[in-house]
Every structure is written in C-alpha cells, then in structure tokens.
C-alpha cells in the first residue's frame, strides 16, 4: 500500500514537473499535415487504405492476391466484358469481396460496441488511482482515473481461461476471425462518429470555464476539415449515466485500440493453431514482442500525461481514427499474415530478431526512464551525474547520457523495435491453391510469391519511420517556441535529431 502510494506520488510529480506552461500551450501556430488539403486527403484516403490491406492480403487466394503481380494482364481485354468489368470481377473473386452490404453486419457492430462497453465498465469498476495532468491554460489541472493495466490484465485472464477451456474455438478468437472486415467497418464508423461528436461539442467551450475545458492551440483555425482532423478541443469529456465523467482522449489512447491490437494478434495465433495444429516460432516472436510493447505502454499509463497527444494535440479524426482503427488493424498485419502462411524461422533467425528487439527495447525504455527520472528526482544517483541546461522557463534539458546522443534517441529505440515485428515474415508472399484431392481445402505455398507481400508486412517499419520523423519535427517546433535560445543551445550541443551520426 505504502509503495503504491509513493509510486502515485512520484508519478504525480512527473506530470507536474514536466508540465508545459499554460502560456506556451495557448500560443497559436500554423497548419500541420499539409493544412486543409493534407487533412482532407488523409481523412478521405486512410479508411480505404486499411481496407486495401485487409483485402489484398487474404485467406482466399494469397498475399497479395495473385493477379496483382501483373495488373496489366488483369486489365487486359476479353471478348465478352469491358476491360474494367473483367479486371474488377477477377479481383473481387481473388480478394473475397463480400459486396458493399457485406462490409458491415449486426454481429460485427454489436461485438465491437460490446468491446467498448467492456473497456468502459472495467475503467469504471476496477480499483484505480487518480493523477493530475499538466497545467491547463484555463487554470488548474485535469484529473485522470488510471487503471488500464489492471483492466488489461483482467481481460487477459478471462481470455486465458476461455482458451484453456475451448482452445482456439474460444468465442473471442472465432468472433474476430469471422468478422474481421465487419469489425473494421464498425470501428471506422465509431471513429468518424466520435470525431463529429467532439468537433460539434467543442463549440460549447467557453473561455475561463469551470469544467477545465479548452481548445487545442493548433486546433481552432476556422477551417472545418482541418479542425475536424487535427482536433478542436484539447480534452473533450463526456458524462455517461452510471459511469460518470470520462476523458475521451486518454480513454481512447490506451484502452480499446491498443489492447484491441493484442486481441487481434491472439486471435490470429489461435487461427494459425486451428488451421495447422501448431504455432510457429515466427508467430510467437510477433505476438510476444508486440505484447511487450503494448503492456509496457499500458503499465506506464501515467507517462501518457506528458505526451504530445495529451498535452498539445486536440482530439479529432487524427487521434480517433489512429487509436481505434489504425493501431489495431495496421499494427497487427504481420500476425494476420502468419496466421495463414506459417513461417518457420529456426533458432538462428529467432536469436537475431531477439537481439534486434532487445536492443530497441533497451534504448527505448532506458532513454524514456532516464528523462522521467531526471524530471522527477534530479538528485537520484542514476541521473545526478548527468549534464543539463537550465532554461529560462525553469525546466532542465539533459545534454548528456541518452539525451546527449540525439534529441529523440527514444524514437530510435522505438523504430528498431518495429523491425522485430516485421522481420519474422521474412521474404513475405504466399498463394493459396485449392487441393483437388481434398475438396474445400487449400494449399499454401510461397511459390512465385516471395517478396511480393513485403510492402504489406514491412509497411509498419516504413510508416513508423515517417511518423517518428514527422513527430520529431513537430516536437522540435514546440520546444523551440517554448525554450527559444535555450533550445538553440541544446541543438548546438546535441546536433543529431534521432540517430546519432546519421540523422
Ligand atoms: P517524448 O517522450 O520524446 O518527449 C518529448 C518532450 O520531452 C519534449 O517536448 C520536451 O518536453 C522534453 N524534452 C526534450 N528534450 C529533452 C531533454 N534533453 N531533457 C529533458 N526533457 C526533454 O515525446 P513523445 O510523446 O513523442 O513520445 C513518448 C514515447 O511514445 C516515445 O518513446 C515514442 O517513441 C512513443 N510513441 C509511440 C507511438 C506509436 O504509435 N507506437 C506514437 C508516438 C510516440 P518539455 O516541454 O517537458 O520540456
């Protein structure tokens, strides 16, 4: 009890000491993500992109659908149909297109809503501790109810019990595998609905209100599409009968989507076991390394209070879609791939990938902890020897240790870890061929397909590099606005942005 209390106290201190000043928070700044045009393109194109991955890599004909290896042939003319009709008919068969109406189902929507209801119920009923966030520009700090680790462990124990009794036929796994596309559509609808809801409600925010509501500095530009995308209100809340007031952003950040990612991984592992009777080392590598990442984030829940997402960005389509659709569906692509095409790595590859994962995790965790510890208790012997700059606004910027090697060395660790999620798929690509001797079954081979699925199973590594570089630029701008000449001095002393000696 005492240790829990002291941990709570030290975590509160982290949030307080790392607090962005209220003055800095309200400073207006220009468009990001290409302004209204970029926001429109992203809002319109991201949902189809997630469907594209879901259909192109499938359990009907292959990953990618075989005809996509030569789209020119696919769209070559035939005597009876137009080029377009012929191409789309073949493609629809190869990807298992369910028709427009088949993209959604009552079962998929009810199951997805039940998942949100479960997350909410656990948030409300399980024991929790309360922390305050950073100083708000309207004055005061918002309180956050923290129990996502407890909640995730409860769900995992229930799933372990279900799997113990029913094996891969446990309903959570069969539901996900049976309704994958319909859960995707339901999640997209929920994320759009939520974005519209918070956008409309943001117009109720009054200056100097007592509810501690405020607009995000970069989120009220007047452009509807841009504000809808980037998020108008910083910390939207909703009062739900019997549950009380829920902070929408922090709830969505770690609960339904992040844990949804692990649930998908586990469902795909169950699918592999059901289809083949065993679980490959590649599948174990992906599921374990991704679960370590998710549970690390959930366990360190208080750390989200000082992330850009919570302190700076409003809650709009970017975070709503990112948290609820992009993370669970795009981040679990490798496990989905391996559920259909089992890859045996062997001890050497396993060891190599473990080294990559361990190196990335070591850099990521020790650098983040070093900064947290320094900001919490600078006299801690682990950080007391580190050099720093005392800035005019009061905070200290580390210039030695991890933070003396690059200004976002933690991003490098995070990116290296992302390799270990993709590498287990090796030179990805498979096709499924019906087995004539055993009607209703298909044989999976990589014949003629090797490497063709690399853009799908390695997409995460590439996308994540882009995200981190872009995020570093945004954070750099924020810090320059906040620290001015002190930040210039930090950049002079630590010239590398993410990878020492390279970038
Ligand atoms: P960081 O944890 O990197 O924090 C950046 C802040 O730290 C700065 O704004 C500044 O805040 C402070 N700071 C900067 N330099 C120093 C220094 N030298 N000494 C002390 N403090 C310093 O930001 P993020 O919120 O972007 O990332 C948190 C973690 O989440 C990262 O490890 C990242 O990789 C991960 N992440 C993962 C994502 C995913 O999709 N998997 C997405 C985004 C992030 P201040 O104003 O307090 O000085």
From TrEMBL:
Does Oxidoreductase show up as a keyword for this record? yes
What EC number(s) does its UniProt record assign? 1.3.1.70
EC class of this enzyme? oxidoreductase
Task: Tell me the keywords, alphabetical order.
Answer: Oxidoreductase
Which superkingdom does the taxonomy of this entry point to? Eukaryota
Per its record, how is this protein called by name?
Erg24, C-14 sterol reductase
